[in-house]
Amino acid sequence: MISGARSSDAAVMCACGSRIRVADPWLVDSLTCGNCGRKVHVTKENVFKDAEKPPSALLKMAERAAIAQRHAMAIDLVREGKYDQAIDVYESVIAEKRDHRDALYGLGFCHYKKGNYTESYRLISMAAAMGHTSAERLLPKVREKMQHSE
Fold this sequence. Notes:
Layout: E1 10-13, E2 19-21, E3 30-32, E4 39-41, E5 47-49, H1 57-63, H2 67-79, H3 83-96, H4 101-113, H5 117-129, H6 133-149
Antiparallel strand pairs: 1-2, 1-5, 3-4
């Protein structure tokens, strides 16, 4: 819950993914989204501090899908270069099945593409230890990038 929120630190999230900044979300019942034109009812589920990362519509949809479907969705996002969204989906898979080596590799690959080499190395090492062959091949490249970025 947000109480005493200022306009710069509160937002209401629309189903389309847009954030609507508000001075005090609890003073209104609903707002109109400037992006899609929908009427957005203010609820505790769609009000966020601006610094919080609200779940995207894609992530909400992914969380209802089976692990295999989420993994396939994350792969498609990676192919499209949407690494931040893929990270969210991979994390939802790992939250449910911590030893999902393909998701660990995929998450590590996304961090590699974003230049987060330390996190990438940690995740890809875990996938490689589980016998993921692509992780084993990528690990030396990640190690090299880590050394050059220090």
